[in-house]
Design a protein that fits this description.
Elements (H helix, E strand, L loop, with lengths): L3 H5 L5 E5 L4 H12 L3 E6 L11 H5 L3 E5 L5 H15 L4 E4 L14 H29 L3 E6 L14 H21 L4 E8 L5 H8 L3 H9 L9 H12 L10 E4 L17
Parallel strand pairs: 1-2, 1-4, 2-3, 4-5, 5-6, 6-7
Helix pairs in contact: 2-9, 4-5, 5-6
Length: 271
């Protein structure tokens, strides 16, 4: 039996991360690189917001960056093909590209919800499909990790994100469906469901909501704080690695405990 250190290593393996230019996606890119993996990032931004191109010097691996719109089939396919050409082969993919909107249900517009579903749902679905086709072409096993959300489990207090919740519920379910379908090919499929995580997206959400709703990001989780993107990335590294060789169809909640109930509620028990 290999040591746990060796089983967690991603040394010499190749991965694609969608939405890897910032936030949770970048933390995942960084940690894959730190664990020895080569990474191709696919993102809408012309250039990464975070120092993706500094990772090779820091960790002795290879990174590449390809601009694409995951909600556009031609753009996604072209970027994916460039990524495979750059890496040679792939061992896994992480679908971290996503968008959200916080508005009352009755004011959410068709085009707004459609865009959420196109990016979060269709983009993740077809990025994973491209990865599976490549893995089968290589005749090699692999790992797919979908970034779902706590909102696929419970409603977040203070936020009105029905369209986003719908998209992430679909992501969690497609991971379960594919885990059974792809298991005979040696391809594991799992998801990770973060809750409140400090990113540009959550900062924007706080800026456009009430003080009370913004404060919930720190007070609602039983652990009493908002999470970091680097609280999420280790779960992804585990699922990509051989340490998770018998793990498929699972969803890892990285929520600070909010899926168990609101933090602070026990204060009412104090006399």
């Amino acid at each position: 039996m290999a040591s746990i250190k060796d089983r967690l290593s991603l040394n010499g393996r190749n991965y694609i991360v969608t939405g890897g230019a910032m936030g949770i996606g970048y933390a995942i890119t960084h940690d894959i690189a730190e664990m020895g993996g080569n990474v191709a990032v696919l993102d809408l931004r012309p250039t990464p917001l975070e120092p993706v191109h500094d990772l090779p010097k820091k960790f002795g691996i290879k990174t590449d960056y390809f601009q694409c719109d995951v909600s556009d089939e031609a753009s996604l396919t072209a970027a994916f093909e460039h990524a495979v050409e750059s890496l040679g082969t792939i061992d896994g993919i992480v679908t971290a590209a996503g968008i959200a909107i916080d508005k009352p249900f009755e004011t959410q517009k068709w085009e707004e919800v459609d865009k959420i579903l196109q990016v979060n749902g269709m983009g993740s679905f077809f990025a994973a499909q491209l990865a599976v086709k490549q893995m089968k072409k290589q005749k090699s096993p692999g790992s797919i990790v979908f970034i779902a959300s706590i909102t696929s489990h419970v409603n977040l207090p203070g936020y009105r994100m029905a369209g986003y919740n719908m998209s992430k519920g679909g992501i969690r379910m497609v991971a379960k469906a594919l885990s059974a379908e792809l298991a005979p090919a040696g391809i594991r499929v799992n998801s990770v469901s973060p809750a409140f995580i400090e990113t540009n997206q959550t900062k924007t959400a706080r800026d456009h909501t009430t003080q009370a709703a913004g404060d919930l990001m720190n007070t609602a989780p039983p652990l009493g704080r908002i999470g970091s993107a680097y609280d999420v990335s280790p779960a992804v590294v585990y699922l990509l690695s051989d340490a998770a060789a018998y793990t498929t169809g699972s969803d890892i909640l990285v929520s600070g405990g909010i899926h168990t109930g609101r933090g602070g509620d026990y204060d009412m028990c104090n006399s």
